[in-house]
Amino acid sequence: MHAVVTGGASGIGEATARLLSRNGAHVTLIDVNGKRGARIAGEINADGGKAAFHQLDVSNEKDLLALAAALFAERPVDVLVNSAGILQNAVRLNDMDLGEFDRIIDVNLKGTVLVCRAFGSRMCAAGAGSIVNLCSLTSLTPSPQLAYGMSKAAVKMLTESLAAELGPSNVRVNAVAPGYTLTPAMQQRIDEGARNPAKMIEAAALRRLVSMEDVAEAINFLSSDKASAITGVVIPVDCGFLVGSAYNAYAAQP
């Protein structure tokens, strides 16, 4: 199996690349962070896996098309994981920097669209493939992360639409919607005081944060033959945040 993972140099993308490799996949990592991406690929190879790294900005269509053509010329891509993304802190509309807005939309939404176009068309031509996009709880419920939330809500619609479009070519398209996940980027925000871990944990039914490995396991399942009849779904991986926050907000509890 050949798996391509965008955002593979850190966070959920890195955890997913490592897990897929341990399960026997040849993994191609794509990330804008060249130094770290090369190091992660090297560590996977040192551990007995097979990995390659390509430094690339997913919002650059020209580079994406060239890479997709080159990779498919070597071997078909069976699995595509769209993990490249940018977080955002809470902000009011009138206070939001529009440069930040543009960059988040470019990477989180446009980047996902471009990657799906570059690789999805070739998967369809090959007659098989699995795409897993990274949504978020902000795809399902409002958040003060305005640009981030809009980008992830759009990725949900993209996932559902592509599942219907690509399904006749035997290409499945699904997504995971991680809750508060303890990635390096999240840890940095906690350290800066931009996130309150106690509140995040209290709202989750399981009373803990999501780990990167939790999300990677869900991605691994959706990309595998065990999910061969599943397409067009968005699976929350949130330690029960959605149900816990709704249940606990009820005015009277048993």
Description:
- With 254 residues, the protein is α/β, with parallel strands linked by helices.
- It has a single domain, classed as NAD(P)-binding Rossmann-like Domain (Rossmann fold, 3-Layer(aba) Sandwich), CATH 3.40.50.
- It has a seven-stranded parallel sheet, with helices on both faces.
- Strand 5, helix 5 and strand 6 form a beta-alpha-beta unit.
- Helix 3 packs parallel to helix 4.
- The longest helix is centred in the middle third of the chain and has 29 residues.
- It is globular, with a radius of gyration of 18 Å.
- 44% of the residues are buried.
- The model has no long low-confidence stretch (mean pLDDT 95).
Helix content: 40-55%
Largest sheet: 7 strands, parallel
N-to-C series of helices and strands = EHEHEHEHEHEHHHEH
Low-confidence runs of at least 5 consecutive residues: none
Which CATH architecture is right?
3-Layer(aba) Sandwich
Q: CATH superfamily name?
A: NAD(P)-binding Rossmann-like Domain
Strand content: 15-25%
What's the CATH C level? Alpha Beta
Total DSSP E strands: 7
Please tell me how large the radius of gyration is: 18 Å
Q: Can you count the helices?
A: 9
Brief summary:
The protein contains nine helices and seven strands, in the order βαβαβαβαβαβαααβα.
Summarize the helices and strands and which ones pair or pack.
Layout: E1 2-6, H1 11-22, E2 26-31, H2 34-46, E3 50-55, H3 61-74, E4 79-82, H4 98-126, E5 129-134, H5 146-166, E6 171-178, H6 184-192, H7 197-203, H8 212-223, E7 234-237, H9 241-248
Parallel strand pairs: 1-2, 1-4, 2-3, 4-5, 5-6, 6-7
